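Appendix B. Chain record.
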Amino acid sequence: MAEIQRYMVILTLVAALTASGSLLPTVNASFCPPGPRTGIAICSPPPPFNLPVRSWDATINGLPAILNITSASRAGNINGTITGGDLCNGDTQCLIKGSFDGKSGRISFINTASSIEKRVLIGIQNFTGQESIAKIVDIKKYTLAGTGENVKEGPETKIPTTFNWEAHTSCLVIKPC
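Structure tokens predicted for this chain:
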């Protein structure tokens, strides 16, 4: 009888430990592609993201533009300008200020548009997006894509308005951007 009780206690402990996962090997599969897993999954994290400080060909709300990233600090702070799109034309100066996360590739910035001559605020737009990188032979193609929102109405913008945007640039692999 004591032998049966001991056997039951051991089985109960094994069942409890197995159910909580402490006896089973676990893996962090957050970097693995989505889908069902069979067997052991060993997936390496994506490489760190890099935001090239340069001019990017852009499309903002369906209109051609130039996104010029003029600085990006190690802490992720970015500055730059936008020319074109639906807000940054003619005598309008558009300055951007925001952040870039090198681990996730997420970008977020505010575009402040003001009249150069009159020094009057014309509008403010909030941009968020994601960087993707494709390596084709010896060229790295960088893409930023996301959504934007007009957060301050001006003569050219209405609130609330959301829009899509994207920007592209390329660099040779042997020469960093």
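Further analysis of this model is presented in Appendix C.
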